[in-house]
Amino acid sequence: MAKETLHAQDYFWHVIINPNACNQECFSNWGTISTKLGQNGIRHEMHKSDASGRGIEIARELCQKGERHLIVIGGDGTINEVVNGIFTAGINTQEVYLAVLPLGRGNDWARTHKFPGNFIDSIDLLLKGNFIRHDIGKVETIQNGQKAAERYFINIAGFGFDADVIYDTTYNKPHFLGISVYILSLIRTLFHFKAPEITVKTPDHTFSGKSFLSIAAICQYNGGGMRQAPMAKPNDGLLDVVVIPNVGKLKVIANLKHIFTGNHLNKLKGIEVFSTPSLTISSKQLVRGEVEGEVLRNGDYNIQLLPSALNTLSALE
Q1: 182 vs 101, 237, 257, 276, 294, CA distance in Å?
Q2: Which pLDDT value is given to residue 35?
Q3: Average pLDDT for runs of 10 along the chain of length 317
Q4: What are the backbone angles phi and psi of residue 29, rounded to the nearest 5°?
Q5: HEC profile for the chain?
Q6: Separation CA 38–CA 27 (nearest Å)
Q7: Smallest Cα–Cα separation from 154: which of 247, 66, 77, 40?
């Protein structure tokens, strides 16, 4: 895997922190993080992303001012916001170096990159300076034949059941926290979800039929540790697409453990798996979409890969 070693002490880093991530654990640990960064010669300034969309604004403004070295403290949603800020700043994104100290609830992106379980150890990873050229995805929502919205992603874009679960998690959030939030929404969504008729098209492959779930993956994990795309690599220049046809509710529950291990590709019949630099998803019915837990605007979808578009900290060899 192509990588670059960066001497982090040679640069000034802007830290974007979500004080609300993981029940404010991020902000409560900021003093410890800042002290260790300073002790190791990492010059830095902190910026609070304390409202929805604020991470996009902060990252965009920093990049437009010429800053190119960013640290995210938070979860997958905060990472997604910062990525979208970078890619809407009108700059050469290959100049940007993004480090993450994962302190969210799911930390799915960090799982693929084999980050240490302790955020303090992630600072040691930054000191080693192992950066890779990471692929980035872009989803365009199409309404009446026109682009209505776009969103970038660094992990997985999900459509169908996956996105309905995120929608339920976002708008019907229970009063307790943790991975059980996702599992509760998953079970609740199962009772009313009806697989839509969709068409998935790539330059050399077409799927048409009822689809329970479709994903376009750059990395492997989604939904708080579900290994939905075990074959995905973050810098191979391809999206790994998994289309699960309509399956019964009991079969989904029975195979949950296999989705967490990645064995569902062998256990569930009729799954289609293919790799592509671009695809479209269309339907006459409502098909919800999501990226990194952020619900997309409804419509048809154009999805494309931007290869080697961003430098990211990684523990991958």
Answers
A1: 22, 30, 14, 29, 13
A2: 95
A3: 84 92 69 94 95 95 98 94 98 98 88 89 93 98 95 97 86 58 76 90 94 95 89 97 83 73 78 95 94 94 98 93
A4: -95, 0
A5: CCEEECCHHHCCEEEEECCCCCCCHHHHCHHHHHHHHHHCCCCEEEEECCCCCHHHHHHHHHHHCCCCEEEEEECHHHHHHHHHHHHCCCCCHHHCEEEEEECCCCCHHHHHCCCCCCHHHHHHHHHHCEEEEEEEEEEEEEECCEEEEEEEECCEEEEEHHHHHHHHHHHCCCCCCCHHHHHHHHHHHHCCCCCCEEEEEECCEEEEEEEEEEEEECCCCECCCECCCCCCCCCCCCEEEEEEECCCHHHHHHCHHHHHHCCHHHHCCCCEEEEECEEEEECCCCCCEEECCEECCCCEEEEEEEEEEEEEECCCC
A6: 17
A7: 77
Supply the pLDDT for residue 1. Answer: 56
**Single-letter amino acid code for the residue at 269:** K
**Spatial CA neighbour of 8 closest among 36, 29, 48:** 36
Backbone angles phi, psi at 186, to 5 degrees: -60, -50
Task: Report the 10 Å Cβ neighbour count for 1.
Answer: 12
> Which residue type, as a one-letter code, is found at position 156?
I
Residue 120 φ/ψ, nearest 5 degrees: -65, -40
pTM of the predicted structure, to 2 decimals: 0.92
Regarding beta strands 3-5 and 13-17, do their DSSP bridges make them parallel or antiparallel, or are they unpaired?
Answer: unpaired
Q: Return the amino acid letter for 208.
A: S
